[in-house]
Amino acid sequence: xxxxxxxxxxxxxxxxxxxxxxxxxxxxxxxxxxxxxxxxxxxxxxxxxxxxxxxxxxxxxxxxxxxxxxxxxxxxxxxxxxxxxxxxxxxxxxxxxxxxxxxxxxxxxxxxxxxxxxxxxxxxxxxxxxxxxxxxxxxxxxxxxxxxxxxxxxxxxxxxxxxxxxxxxxxxxxxx
Length: 176
Hints:
- By secondary structure, the protein is an alpha/beta fold.
- The chain has one domain (22-175): Alpha/beta knot.
- The chain contains 5 helices and 7 strands.
- The chain has a 7-stranded parallel β-sheet, with helices on one face.
- It starts with a helix and ends with a helix.
- 32% of the residues are buried.
């Protein structure tokens, strides 16, 4: 029998994780597609992020599409565009910055222990995270892809990483 998600999660209170660890910050470097931007806002709301930061110029012609794709999440979470490239001006010093990227120094996401206090960043749909941004990250993880297309949509990659982070910390939280 179908049950509304708010009813299903009412008793388990998965958001109680944030009683013991800080909310993550989510960032995206130079996204191009309004649908991906909206999906990132929605995902950030789903995971309980404190904010969604888009590095790059705000699209003037398609912001309504971003809002439409974000649906009700556009009003639930702080999100904004900035041309700032110094991540430490955007992310508090105590947060570890985790890049989700295919890079030479990346570790397998399923073999990596995520910090509880984290900011996550994904890159542009075609070129990934700019090197000047990637070099500021504390850790870089990749997602092993078993199928013939070896890359994920940016919001899908962020989903995998964010819910792996959540799984790791929720599991630890449940043991307390």
